Amino acid sequence: MALPPNLRQAPTPQELEYITGEMIVAIEPLFRMEKVRLVSGVYGPFRPPAKTKVPMWLAQSLKLKRKCRIVPPDWVTVDFLSLRLQEETSQAGLSKMPFRYAEVAKVLLDIAPDDIMEPDRIRILLKDIREARQAKCRELLRSLDSAYAPIENLCSMEISEVRLFFSSAMNIIGKLTVEPAPAEEDMYDF
């Protein structure tokens, strides 16, 4: 399971955050405009208070110019995150979270905290979820086996964090299982 050298480097959190720029999010525009054609697609029309879908990078740009309100995803609520935290602390495996939850939450909390209900409570819940998931990932990595790695529901940031360790560990496990142990009589042969 060795990765080629060019794939062994994990993306940085900033690179993962940049990748989320292509995700489609809903906004409530604060201006009027017909459809706009961009390289990435056609977006609009922008008519308040009707919601429209745009890429995250466009939502960020409009939000910074105070031209829209970003509609947070359904999972950015205290109820949803409290339930997930309870699952993380009471169950053995990782709970199902949106694949890019950490990056999306960071962008929304940095750019649009005024569009989120109870942003401080959301930050705390996300931090607690992240810490619980990291602890579970460390435990799962301790139980690595060359034939089976029982890691499910990892998110992009978590994959990035464990990727280098995981690929190195799998390379070592692969070498240990392939190389035969020296015969006892060869050990004392001078």
UniProtKB/TrEMBL annotation:
Gene3D superfamilies: 1.20.58.1020, 3.40.5.50. It comes from Serendipita vermifera MAFF 305830. Keywords: Chromosome partition, DNA replication, Nucleus. The keyword Nucleus applies. One of its GO terms (biological process) is chromosome segregation. GO terms for cellular component: GINS complex. This is DNA replication complex GINS protein PSF2. Belongs to the GINS2/PSF2 family. InterPro entries: GINS_A (IPR021151), GINS_bundle-like_dom_sf (IPR036224), GINS_Psf2 (IPR007257), PSF2_N (IPR056784). Residues 12-71 form the DNA replication complex GINS protein PSF2 N-terminal domain. SUPFAM superfamilies: GINS helical bundle-like (SSF158573), PriA/YqbF domain (SSF160059). The keyword S-adenosyl-L-methionine does not apply. Component of the GINS complex. Pfam families: PSF2_N, Sld5. It is found in: Nucleus. Its main location: nucleus. Coiled coil: none annotated. Residues 75-175 form the GINS subunit domain.
